[in-house]
Amino acid sequence: MKQISTLTLAFLLALSLKSQTTDKTVSFIKPNIIQIEFLGVGNSYSLNYERFISYKKVFKTSISIGGAYYFGNHDSERITHCITASINELYSIKSHHIEIDIGATYWNVKGISGSDIAGELGGTPIFLTGRVGYRYQKPDGHLMLKIAYIPFLKYRNYRHALTYYKSWAGVTIGYSF
User: Fold this and answer.
1) Does residue 16 fall inside a structural domain?
2) Is residue 2 part of a domain?
């Protein structure tokens, strides 16, 4: 009888302690985000769509795709448009997140053949990009703000040598739905 009483008491105590913990999984209720990034991977701006594909209490994973079109005179050697894609990992503490991502950016540069830009970029203008930054986004809110450091890397395919490096930054505002 004493063993049954002890087991029952231990069971009720465990239930009581479990009910007092608030170990809820913090997931984004609105997993889609439309965002505009100033500077960043688009060089001056980009419009992006992001979708969260994995929700854990602390780690969250998303994929992002976006692009930009640069208006104006395209007769000179300049970027006319870009396409970006990345996979992102967030380390979350409530509404505050550290973001790390890796991706690629394609810049369409008009007049690239035989120009100084072609020499600087080392051929095809596809860049490996990364991002390390801070994001503010409530799990159940609509507003997303982000600031990040973004390096651009370009390698020549046949030499495996770094041909271009650029340190850059970006500021992003987004709306989740």
Assistant:
1) no
2) no
For residue 126, the enclosing domain spans 31-176
Distances in Å between the Cα of 121 and the Cα atoms of 27, 77, 164 are 40, 13, 6
- Cα separation, 177 vs 170, whole angstroms: 22
What's the total number of domains in the chain? 1
Count of helix runs (H) and strand runs (E) in the chain: 2, 8
Decide if 96 contacts 134 (C-beta within 8 A).
yes
pLDDT digits (tens, 9 = 90+) for 63-90: 999 999 987 665 555 677 899 999 999 9
Answer yes or no: pTM beyond 0.85: no
Quick one: residue 41, left, alpha or beta (phi over 0 = left, psi -120 to 50 = alpha)? Answer: alpha
In a domain, 128, yes or no: yes
